[in-house]
Amino acid sequence: YKVHHSSYFKPGHVFKVLWAEPKGETPRQSNASDSATVVTEEWFQPIEGKYKGQETYETIRRFVIAAGDDGHCQCLPILTYGGQGTLKTGVKAKDHAIIYTGTPAIFKGEKLELDPIKMDPNSSRDKLDQASRINYAKIYTVEHNVKVHFIGKLEKSSRRKFMTDFDLVWSRKRFSY
């Protein structure tokens, strides 16, 4: 992991980064909707935060760069949902696609509408888990001054499909009332 110049952060490139975020509550603990993703605590390591009463967790998160700019980029997360793919409670399958390095794997009962996306890994150590899914509905901004490790890039034949599906998911959000 190291800090890279902004020129490295190009659309279609995939990296992993140490990612910290506040721990959310499950729908049963809060007033969140029943469709909220249930947090699986084993995925995270608790760290002591500055603010009392708010637990913070860290994990290694993988991202696909959707758009780049000087100093930051907009990315989509690659998640396995505890090895369950989109079968995990609260996950909206319509916003996800398989992302794979070998052969795409769909789990029995998964109902994915979007085509699989292939990633070319930089090395054999950078292969993705068979449960890896891109969540097109969540955009994260990642600053370029954090240490990341580039693990691959989208195969040329998947790049247009990646952007088309990204636009499709967001057009459904923008025009659904």
Give a brief rundown of this model.
The protein has 177 residues and is mainly beta. The chain has one helix spanning 156-174, and strands at residues 13-22, 45-47, 56-69, 72-79, 96-100, 117-121, 133-135, 140-143, 148-154. It is 11% helix and 33% strand.
How would you explain this protein's 3D organization?
This protein is mainly β. The protein has one domain (6-174). The protein contains one helix and nine strands, in the order βββββββββα. It has one helix spanning 156-174, and strands at 13-22, 45-47, 56-69, 72-79, 96-100, 117-121, 133-135, 140-143, 148-154. The chain has a seven-stranded mixed barrel with strand order 1-3-4-7-5-6-9. The longest helix is centred in the C-terminal third of the chain and has 19 residues, at 156-174. The relative contact order is 0.23.
